[in-house]
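sorry for the late reply, my laptop died twice this morning and i had to redo everyting from scratch. anyway the thing you sent over, i finally got around to it. pasting the sequence first so we're on the same page, its 372 residues, then the predicted structure underneath. double check i copied it right bc i was rushing
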Amino acid sequence: MPRAAEPLLGFARLLRHHAFPIAPEQVSSFMQAVTLLGPRSMADIREAALATLAPSPDRRGEFEAHFRSHFYGDARPSIAGEEDEETRIKDDHGTREENNQTTRQEKGGELSSAIEQLSSRDFQRDDDGLVPFRRKLASALPARRSFRTMRTRSRGALDLRRSLSEIVSADGDIPSPQLRRRQTVPRKLLLLIDISGSMKLHTADYLKLAHATVQGTDRAEIFTLGTRLTRITSALRIRDRDQALARAAALVDDWDGGTRMGPTLLAFLSVPRFSAFARGAAVVILSDALERGDHADLETAIRRLSARAFRLSLATPLAGDPRFQPATVALRAILPDLDDLIDGSSLRSLTDFILSLARPAPAASTIWKRVS
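ok and here's the structure:
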């Protein structure tokens, strides 16, 4: 590549780093346009960039700031809301009954960004083999002892009140004692799905898995994480998957945008009704965990979530690579608080894992220290 072309390529890389959607063809067109214009001045380069890289109108000011920073050496622009914007929370407002129950891998994570970019998604139907998973899910979830009791003929505690009532009704005769035992109920299953740009190749599969989960058990809750937090459980209760995913796509505003995983998880925990969904639940986070910038919020959120959950698991598509190691600063920081760190690159691996949640397994830190 000619030496004079390196600044042009560097500018395209800078924009990609800040989550501007730029295709390789646009970069080639940008260089060709500059060649055709001469260029005679920096204004020609700017016009070529605007015409070929095509920033959206709402990010035009940010584009201009990055252009001056790269070509004129101005200070790096401060993007309003990049780090300090409060995470927005969107609830799908489930039914009163729900409220009462209390609800291809990207190289080096180049698409991971903290900049919010709103978008929409369309999900197409295909045969993914989730029907057996849906049928087995309810009986495969880990169980807990409820505080509610039920009558039993054996292996129960004496129900003194009903036994005395039986004696009175029998005029003092001593009938068989009435016994009761605590019920066993399945634990809640909470799926937190990362829908940022670095996860876009897996989002469709994850949403199909979420729909099968909600259809398979009434103890499931689904949230999407990006630059915003959105609850989509009610939308996924629609039996027809195409309709359910279309409804979910309409609810979520931040498809394929940036990611603020730590602040978004903290926002989830700050809403009492939402954090109650995690209490005693099997929590599965579907994310590459490529947190930009300071990971302190992520570490705090994972620690607090681990304290509430029965089992906290991170399913990352990066683990589908046999060479994968949790080597990033963020992953090393949260690994001690994770019960599982597993392969999230395929529906098969995810369904097999979820169906095995009731079986005990070594902690994630133990497994990955042994592997490394």
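The two ends are 39 Å apart (CA to CA).
thats about all i looked at so far, will dig more tmrw
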